[in-house]
Amino acid sequence: MTVLPVFLIFRDRFGSVEFCVSTYMVRASALSGYRETVRALGGEPEALLARHGMADAPVNLEHWISYADWLRLLDDSARELDCPCFGLELSERQDINILGAVGFMMRQAPDVRTALAELSAYFNHHNQGATVAASVEDGKVLWNFTPRPNLQAPLVQQTDLVVGIATGIMRLLSPRWQPSTIYLPHRAPEDLRPYEQRFQCPVFFDWDTTMVVSEAGVLDNPLSEADDALHRILEAHLRDVQQLNPDSFSARVSHLIRQALATGDCSIERVSGYLGMNKRTLQRKLKEDGVGYKDLLDDVRFDIACNYLLDCQGPLTTLSHMLCYSELSAFSNAFRRRFGVSPRAWKRQQQSRETRQETG
């Protein structure tokens, strides 16, 4: 049974404004291989799990755990074990089976195109805190991983983990498949060899998304394990569960705002067009969820801004353009209204806080 997000009011660690966010969950299968990976790196997994309230992490992989706590566990493990590529290491011990029913259904699909479409449609059955999507442009498949807005948890290890798992799944579905390019949103580590050995393709860092790019011809490759009857049964089951436990409308709009920002046009007209409705209908449906479009746009913008400031070294001008502000001063003024300090001052505060936590 899918566990729906629980809505809470809490004080954001990035500022003093209180607002509604979702406590997203991830299936306990996300912990598959965690203990073995930590031990292989010379660490004590039980101590790390206990530090993050997971000493009694469920053995049943269909149970659910806090997504934010899991992200912090990954980040802490990388730091404790002095392993900047911990997420990549963990991905060696995780495969399509961590997706449960979704992964099983994908293996019964007639071809790679169908399998990827189903992963996008039903990913929230495994992870409520992010979305995945595959699109085709200029003969290339672009596979994107996008965390939900307002997650406010460290994502470096998660992005490495998900790209590692994604490439493993693609090689399972199509053994001759090879990525052509990989993009990661965090800064480049000092040692790039783990990435070069694992992916065997160019890897770009400090990007504005997590993306795997490959040739589009792979989409039509048939799957060797395809079982049409079993596939229909699994798809019907997951569709029924999806209808009983849909994402909120505002969560869907937030995700579309992220996509719109990448196009340079985050207007309400653009996003309502994605949904096939007019602006007034979008505003009315958001009002039913108790939010406004500008509120969601601001939340998405500042979520991206905070992660960029923490994980990237790029200029603020690039960030302001990424967030569709007309000029840097407009972004800086909006940021100051939200957090009470300038973007650079906020970044210094967070770095100082992290230093105190590490030395405390």
Describe what is shown at a glance.
This protein is of the alpha+beta class and 360 residues long.
Task: Describe this structure as you would to a colleague.
The chain is of the alpha+beta class and 360 residues long. It folds into two domains: 6-241, no CATH class; 249-359, Arc Repressor Mutant, subunit A (Orthogonal Bundle). Helix content is 51%, strand content 12%. It has 16 helices and nine strands. Strands 5-6-9-7-8 form a five-stranded mixed beta sheet. A two-stranded antiparallel sheet has the order 1-2. A two-stranded antiparallel ribbon has the order 3-4. α5 (101-108) runs antiparallel to α6, α10 crosses α13 and α14 packs across α15. The longest helix is centred in the C-terminal third of the chain and has 19 residues, at 293-311. The radius of gyration is 20 Å and the shape is globular. It starts with 5 loop residues before the first strand and ends with a helix.
Number of strands: 9
**Whole-number radius of gyration?**
20 Å
Q: What is the number of domains?
A: 2
Helix content: 40-55%
Features:
two-stranded antiparallel sheet; globular; single chain; disordered N terminus; alpha+beta; five-stranded mixed sheet
Task: Reconstruct the topology from this structure.
Elements lengths: L5 E6 L6 E6 L1 E3 L6 H7 L4 H7 L12 E3 H14 L5 H6 L9 H8 L3 H11 L7 E8 L2 E8 L8 H18 L7 E3 L9 H7 L3 E2 L5 E6 L12 H17 L4 H15 L4 H7 L4 H10 L4 H19 L4 H7 L5 H12 L3 H17 L1
Helix pairs in contact: 5-6, 5-9, 10-13, 14-15
